[in-house]
Amino acid sequence: MKSIILLCSMLLCISFVAASYPAYPVSIQHKLIGTWQDGSRGQTYSQYDIVLSNHGNKNIKQIVIGTDATCRLRDNNSIWNVKVVDGPSFIDFLILPSYQDINAGASYTFGYIIHGSSPANLFVKNVIYA
């Protein structure tokens, strides 16, 4: 019984440590630039700047940012400084332009205009280091 309790305690400690360290040392910060009503379309739109920060000690050559159906762009011209890869019904993921790296300790900003006032769900799917 003591060994089972000890094992469970160790697994619990490991799960807390694993949960506090992300798989990649990259953060995604949403900065609301503004929200407005478009009377001609009867829609609310919001503009966000997204800051990707490399907290690691290696340069990032490519990063894959996943999203979901919450990433409803105003139109095809409403996202900049990233490349969009479309899925069957919505944006599947975003990647850096081929000429762009994110140096260790540096950040990179891209932006978009989205339907509504809530930011899109964005998450790091993969990182390729230089």
TrEMBL record:
Single annotated GO MF: extracellular matrix structural constituent
Pfam families registered for this protein in UniProt: CBM49
Segments forming a coiled coil: none
Keyword field contains Cell membrane: no
GO biological process: extracellular matrix organization
Residue span, Carbohydrate binding domain: 26-117
Domain of life of the organism encoding this protein: Eukaryota
Region forming the signal peptide: 1-19
Keywords: Signal
CC annotations in GO: extracellular matrix
Matches recorded under InterPro entries: CBM2/CBM3_carb-bd_dom_sf, CBM_49, Dd_Spore_Germination_Stalk
The protein's name: Carbohydrate binding domain-containing protein
Species of provenance: Cavenderia fasciculata (Slime mold)
